[in-house]
Amino acid sequence: MRQWASLAAAVALLANGAVAQNMLRFACSQLVVDRVDPLVNPGQRYTPHLHQIVGGNSFNLTMTPVEHDLAKLSTCTSCTFAQDKSNYWTAVMFFKAKNGSYHRVPQVGNGGPQGQLVNKGGLDVYYIPSGKVTAFKPGFRMLAGDATNTDDNKVSKGNICHRCWTSTNENNFVGGAPCTGSDTVAIPQDTKCKMIRQTIIFPACWDGKNLDSPDHKSHVAYGQGSGATGGGACPSTHPVKLPQVMYELMWDVSSFADRSIWPDSGPAFIYSMNLGYVGSAAHGDYLFGWEGDSLQKAMDNGCNLNRDCPAAGLTAQSPDVYSACTVKQQAPEPVDGWLKALPMGDMPMKA
């Protein structure tokens, strides 16, 4: 029966185009949980909200475009492929208890028809090609989503979404392709959810000129359509087709299933921005840092999932190796256990 369920899920994904061709899909363990943001708030310590970061260990307060060569400056990466020294980060999900204290929601690996991914916290990254694509250039960076948005209606559910996972087994696949079906922009607020999967899909069209833009968005654009399809046809203003980058995070909310500790009103699961910013404020940051032309070769040679790909020179590290790549907080503060307040403004205190 379980085999049939897995087959049905795989067919559903194929029908939605998510696994219709080869793509990179790999785990990244947590490099650090820290209140820094070299993309939006370069040089600032204790930025407005907390992030969880993965990737190359040259991650720093200030990473000047091009000048800061992630591939050369990083001595290890918390991602599967040794050649990928990019940095990827998102906001952090917290549980707010009835007594007003907060607890960071832990993360686990991801499963599904393509196989299990193992990480220590962190997230999973996809590079999905659609036909011939042009890999990112050194110094390229971009942002998906808006940390200040409080309106779910201003978010395309086909690009940023959440899914209620009713099992603590991430391999017990739920639903179809990412950001389809019953997926929601809002974070599910239901005790039946044992895990909550968050998906962030980045634009896959580039203007072909700028490695960044003042808002970290204008140099890229979404193509026609939405979802994890590799992106549709690009607009004339952004004619260069990029690999579609997608983040998946599995937030393990199973330890917060006791409804008696939930707040009497308002959401229980929120992101690290503030009380009013839930699913609508979900966002992801991306700084390209693949070695040489390894990503271009990976796309050209159909490298698949999280496996070695000799044609592109890609080598997959074992989970114990990439999980050992960590850095210390650059804005030191407690982020684990019960906190009296979200990590915002002054350093938070333990509850």
From TrEMBL:
<dbReference type="Pfam" id="PF09362">
    <property type="entry name" value="DUF1996"/>
</dbReference>
<dbReference type="InterPro" id="IPR018535">
    <property type="entry name" value="DUF1996"/>
</dbReference>
<keyword id="KW-0732">Signal</keyword>
<protein>
    <recommendedName>
        <fullName>DUF1996 domain-containing protein</fullName>
    </recommendedName>
</protein>
<feature type="signal peptide">
    <location>
        <begin position="1"/>
        <end position="20"/>
    </location>
</feature>
<feature type="domain" description="DUF1996">
    <location>
        <begin position="37"/>
        <end position="290"/>
    </location>
</feature>
